[in-house]
Amino acid sequence: MEAFAITRVYADENGDSRFEDISRTLNPEGEIGFLSEPEVAESVIFRKVVSTYDYDFHTAPARQYLVVLDVGIEIETSLGEKRTFRQGEVLLLEDTTGKGHKTRNLEQAVRSSIFITLA
Question: Residue 1's pLDDT band (boundaries 50, 70, 90)?
Answer without folding.
Answer: confident
